[in-house]
Write a structure and sequence with these properties.
Helices cover about 55% and strands about 5% of the residues. With about 475 residues, it is of the alpha/beta class. Strands 3-2-1-4-5-6-7-8 form an eight-stranded mixed β-sheet, sandwiched between helices.
Length: about 475
């Protein structure tokens, strides 16, 4: 009996996905570039299962049922292209290659087109949930060649996480790089969520002078509210974890954050598409700032920086902080969905935003209770341009506004950096302001560069230039399309 699917790459994610597939009755053929890794897996975690090994790509291909389905769980970039180049001569028309890594979506676009010419189908699929998700049910976001989906769908939906209504957290996203784009935005929101939580932690620790046990209790309670989520849950675990000397382990971790690039890609795409993804880009910059550890240590001494204590009723502040975190989190998701909407329009993907929310409802890092509310919002209005306009989320934003402003103002007053939480508030203030000062900005551009402007008392699309000094000319430079 031949295998149902082959998986290349036996790092933790690859191994756990294979074991997950085996648990659901699928025969998996496992391959790794180093034969020792295959042996270790077969004699270790895969021992006693139906999983079989392949010690060459030819053996892998020979052991698979047609149409062959081969999933790459390898590092994104050149490694993926290298495996594709080696696999293609061994495959038949109609066979399927799947990239399950964190690939930049233009690479997926390119691979779908190139393989289509050879009669090979390609799927670029985001997989979220970390090691535990891969083993017991991840969120899976496939896109690429639509002809391949019916062959992969039973496997992916079987191994994916399920909602409380037993709906699979996996569905077809769209053509070409749509799946990897959605996974990229997922990771961008993940960056934002994590930064927001760390800002709340610093406000409690440095501003309110709370102990780690007190902060752990707060996060446990917050997880019983609308903030219920995987990241809030694990934060409570982390804050309660003690080192061997009984002290909180988290305070012994160097405060320099790493990143693999997906948050940066999200920000770059937002800039390219003209979407104000302020919160997520601030979270990326916060990681960049954290890496300047030596400079920060010197600057703190140079400026004599000291955070002031936040005075007042601690419980009142904790509730205000909860509301500010919740409102900011909504903005993070709202901006992410704005970016997906623009990408869908530009690329003709026809994304189903309710389905995206469903795919993120379980298994993934940003899974949270209010993703069900996001799905409901897009079920009501599939063309919703701003998530905060939905009645449920509008109500939370309005009810949280006073507390949100209070926390933002106090953070600036006492010197606690909260870049993502404050940028989220500033974004909403800008988004809900009918007339912004960009009229003056346009006048400046026309003054020094003759870039023209539109007038409120003239039809949109009609451009004007003014000789502001009497020394310039009447000829305009370039037209700015808003």
């Amino acid at each position: 009996m031949k295998g149902d699917i082959g998986v290349i790459g036996l790092a933790v994610m690859g191994q756990n996905l294979i074991l997950n597939m085996n648990d659901h009755g699928y025969k998996v053929v496992a391959h790794n570039r180093t034969a020792e890794k295959v042996d270790e897996f077969l004699q270790g975690p895969a021992k006693g299962t139906n999983i079989v090994g392949a010690y060459s790509l030819q053996e892998l291909v020979d052991k698979l049922e047609s149409p062959r389905k081969i999933m790459l769980m390898v590092r994104a970039g050149d490694v993926v292209d290298s495996f594709i180049d080696k696999l293609v001569p061994l495959l038949d028309k109609g066979d399927i290659i799947i990239d399950g890594g964190n690939t930049n979506f233009p690479d997926t676009n390119r691979r779908v087109a190139a393989l289509k010419e050879k009669g090979i189908h390609f799927i670029g699929s985001g997989v979220s949930g970390g090691e535990e998700g891969a083993r017991f049910g991840p969120s899976i976001m496939p896109g690429g060649s639509p002809e391949a989906w019916p062959f992969v769908k039973p496997i992916f939906q079987a191994i994916s996480a399920k909602t409380e209504n037993n709906e699979p957290c996996c569905d077809w996203v769209g053509n070409d790089g749509a799946g990897h784009f959605v996974k990229m935005v997922h990771n961008g929101i993940e960056y934002g969520d994590m930064q927001l939580i760390t800002e709340a932690y610093q406000f409690m620790k440095d501003g309110l002078g709370m102990t780690h046990d007190e902060m752990q209790s707060v996060f446990i309670e917050w997880n019983k509210t609308e903030l219920n989520s995987y990241l809030v849950e694990i934060t409570s675990d982390i804050l309660g974890y003690k080192d061997t000397d009984g002290e909180p382990l988290v305070e012994k971790i160097l405060d320099t954050a790493g990143q693999k690039g997906t948050g940066k890609w999200t920000g770059i795409n937002a800039l390219d598409m003209g979407i104000p993804l302020t919160l997520i880009t601030e979270s990326v910059f916060a990681r960049c700032l954290s890496s300047l550890k030596d400079q920060r240590v010197e600057a703190e001494e140079l400026f004599g920086k000291k955070e002031s204590i936040v005075e007042g009723d601690k419980q009142v502040w904790i509730e205000a902080l909860r509301q500010a975190l919740l409102a900011s989190k909504i903005i993070s998701y709202a901006q992410g969905f704005m970016l997906m909407r623009e990408a869908s329009n530009e690329n003709g993907w026809d994304l189903n935003y309710g389905n995206v929310a469903l795919m993120w409802r379980g298994g993934c890092i940003i899974r949270s209770a209010f993703l069900s509310n996001i799905r409901d919002a897009y079920d009501i209005d599939s063309e919703l341009s701003f998530l905060g306009s939905d009645s449920y989320f509008k109500g939370i934003l309005e009810n949280s506004m006073s507390a949100w402003r209070k926390v933002a103002a106090k953070s600036m007053e006492v010197g606690i950096p909260m870049p993502s939480m404050t940028s989220a508030l500033t974004f909403l203030d800008g988004y809900t302001t009918a007339r912004l000062p960009a009229n003056l900005l346009q006048a400046q551009r026309d003054y020094f560069g003759a870039h023209t402007y539109e007038r409120v008392d003239k039809p949109k699309g009609e451009f004007f230039h003014t000789n502001w000094t009497g020394k310039g000319g009447d000829v305009s430079s370039t037209t700015y399309n808003s």
